[in-house]
Amino acid sequence: MIRLLFSLLLIGLSALILAFLQSTTPSYAILTGPIIRAGQQKDTVSSRTFSSKVDKIIRAKMLAFTRYGKQIERQSEGVWVIASVELQTKRETMTIQAAAIQGASGRLYQQSHRADGAPRLVSTKTLQPGLSSTGIIIFEMPEDDAHDMTLIVSKQPSPQLDAEIHVKLDQSVIEMRDRAEIGDNGI
Asked: Average of pLDDT values for 129-152?
């Protein structure tokens, strides 16, 4: 009888320990999610595979560039946010396929396809090991969300067990323009 009671008590205690372990174990998505490296705009933020430094941020109501010899102008009901970045890969040739900006509300805004064909886009560049490359990333977002922003850059969309760089943007150095001209020399 005592042996049966002791066995039931041991089984109950084991179940409590297992329930506690299960409730405190991170989910699979968190365990295999991105490896985040964070920093400030003035710093070069490095991960295991690449590094990023934000040179300049511009906010504008209108975006202008030349594509195939034709002048293109894009207006926005919100605001264009243009990030000039310097990127460098460490070991392998790669492209930066994913960039997003997190606004003040916490929502993520992906790079805008309305600006495809603009010169110097990061998404069109191939990074070579040891060589730095500069380019721009263009976002379109609501004006009331365009402060307290964080730039998020990664090698691929939704990286799993791969690098993702988060750069907190300095609100005091963001340039405000009515019209942002993008040329072959940048912004």
From this structure: 93
Task: Tell the burial category of 8 from Cβ atoms under 10 Å away from its Cβ (0-12, 13-18, 19+).
Answer: exposed
Quick one: DSSP state of residue 15?
Answer: H
pLDDT tier, 28 (very low <50, low <70, confident <90, very high otherwise): confident
pTM: 0.83
> For the chain, what are the domain ranges?
32-182
Confidence of residue 184 (pLDDT cuts 50, 70, 90): confident
Q: Give the chain's end-to-end CA distance (angstroms, integer).
A: 83
Complete DSSP assignment for 21-50: HHHHSPPHHHHTS-EEEEEETTSPEE-SSE
Task: Please give the backbone phi and psi of residue 3, each rounded to the nearest 5 degrees, phi first.
Answer: -65, -40
Q: Which two tokens stand for residue 179?
A: 């019209």
DSSP codes joined into one string, 110-136: EBPGGGTT-TTBGGG--B-BT-EEEEE
Write out the two tokens for 4.
Answer: 């049966």
CATH number, domain 32-182, options 2.60.120.560, 2.60.40.10, 3.90.1170.50, 2.60.40.1240: 2.60.40.1240
